[in-house]
Amino acid sequence: MISWRKHYKSALVALGMLLSAGAPLHAQEGDPKKGEQLFKTNCTACHALDKQLVGPALEKVEERLQSEAGVDRDWLHKWIKDNKALRESGDKYANEVYEKYNKSEMQLFPNLSEQDIDDILAYTANPPAKEEAAAGGEKENANSLKAIEDAQKNSVNSRIVMVSLFVIAGLLLWLLIRLRELVKLQRDETLDVLQEGRVRNFGEIYEKYNPVFKGLLGLLALLALYGIWNSLMWIGVYKGYKPEQPIYFSHKIHAGENKIDCQLCHSGAKYGKVSEIPSLNVCMNCHRNISEYNGKYMEPGKDKAFYDAEIQKIYEHAGWDPATQSYTGKAKPVQWVRIHNMQDFVYFNHAQHVVAGEKAIIDGFNKKNPNNQIDIVCKACHGKIDTMNVVQMANDFTMGWCIECHRTTEVDMNNGYNQAYFSKLHEKLKKQYPKDGGKITVDAIGGLECGKCHY
């Protein structure tokens, strides 16, 4: 009997030790590396590890909730899978969280398994940041070395410029001395006879070659008129114009690196006459949660701090407080500098080109430029904007440039509407231009009529 009791007590002690040891082990279950991928896929739209976004910061969330609210991992499983059902069950803390965050309903994740949630919690408890920190340190060292090299190059360039300026200053001083000597010589009375002879000889030469001089003057006048006419013709043509904007915006990062569709921001290009500059509300759709730049691409001369500062400018103009995740109501407009600006007497409809002419414009451009292919219609006029850090005018946008495009761009006859509407015209052109197969270009359907663009 004593032996049985002794073994019974030993068994209870062993079980107690196992349970007490099992509690902290439970918090370490899960794979942080798998959890990192799951976190980025499912959580980053509303959460970050180190700061509040739409929802609270999640670093060490399990440990924090256990100490603050006395809830365990099972509660977190229920909250993540179906927080709505947990709130409706009357759970006090679930409803407190719901009220605290302005009754913003968290997305339900019934698709996540118990192991998936354990992996995510393992990642939030111990994110594998050491490798990232090391990589960041290497990158910082590389940036520092590059900065030193750039500084050395700038120092050498500055010395060259200073030496050049001293040489130019010396030459100018020498010329001034020589001019003073010439002026003194001209004032000498002994040279009057020589000067009278030179004047007389010049007059005789002018009389003898008077027709030649007049011809040269006429030629100079024509060249001057041509120069004036040519300069007038290029008024308003600003190819290559790329002004500095109040908020730095890199199309290479957004459209190039992140593959954001042009029409996500410039929705008016498809549905209206103008493509419109997107409002800050469009920017905030993404940057409400993206408060810092973590991309791999860095423009030469720019760093992460620069991009983060530009994002803060968006918040300032939109009146957004990232700390409270709310709008302050103190918004102020951004004074963007316009780049593409059609003259008032020119009518241009973006929707007509982007929708009706999309395939025709892309095919026509690629035929004319086999070594410079495009994949979206926007690039035909605006250039490869997904490679531009600073947007610039890629083409002339002159009347001649537009007419040339209308003369060479074929109408898409595979389009059911065009095929039916221009069927008679197509048959006529086939007979008129048999070698070309009766191709219908935009000029054949009124693309050169004055009233199409000027009204």
From TrEMBL:
It holds the Pfam family Cytochrom_C. Keywords: Heme, Iron, Membrane, Metal-binding, Signal, Transmembrane, Transmembrane helix. GO terms for molecular function: electron transfer activity; heme binding; metal ion binding. The keyword Nucleotidyltransferase does not apply. Residues 30-128 form the Cytochrome c domain. The chain crosses the membrane at residues 160-177, 216-237. InterPro entries: Cyt_c-like_dom, Cyt_c-like_dom_sf, Multihaem_cyt_sf. This is Cytochrome c, mono-and diheme variants. The keyword Transmembrane applies. Residues 1-27 form the signal peptide.
